[in-house]
Amino acid sequence: MHPNGYTPNEVNIIHNRQGYLGQWVSKLEPLLEDWEPLWIEHPTLGSSADFVALPLTQTEGIELYPYNLENQPEILVRPSDPINVIGFPFGLTGGGALAIWSTGFMATEPDIDYENQPKFLIDCRARQGQSGSAVVSHYNSGLVPMMNGDSVAYVNPVTRFMGIYSGRINAQSDLGIVWKASAIKELVDSIK
Fold first, then answer.
1. What is the sign of the dihedral through the CA atoms of 123, 124, 125 and 130?
2. Domain check: are 16 and 98 in the same one?
3. For the chain, how far is it from start to end, CA to CA, in angstroms?
4. 43 vs 64: CA distance, rounded Å
5. Whole-structure pTM value
6. Same domain, 166 and 131
7. Is 94 helix (H, G, I), strand (E, B) or coil?
8. Terminus of the chain with fewer CB atoms < 10 Å: N or C?
């Protein structure tokens, strides 16, 4: 929200340049058409959810690297396990247009809804500018615990998309809210 009450009517998105990994291109996407929002809210949560989908209209010359919400690795994640928030704290980048990885820990059971909504808590020093960031469980390699009780050896990185970071529960706490991947998938599926 702008401190002077301005209403944004477009968003500038930095994308990967198609065919040139490590190069970026800016695209402006409209947020409003005739003062009506172009974003799409969750089909049942509506405005009570702190995330939306915005259909991209400016995709020429860009390369997308989406998370696969259909066939994710079944990495086991429990309270106290490491978790990563991948975003832009205070508007900073990790070089070029790359995000910064902030590491924290699961603070609640990821399978149990927090406040009767599809979200969970993490303990992480995430800050302003990281709202909307991807939250993932990530291993660069090695033995990874799986939900079926086994551990699988990976020689390459493996990542499970857990959800979207929504901000801290209050300004004095490092406890942050994450909307679950299942809710994000419901929104995406409702658009298809």
1. negative
2. no
3. 29
4. 25
5. 0.91
6. yes
7. coil
8. C
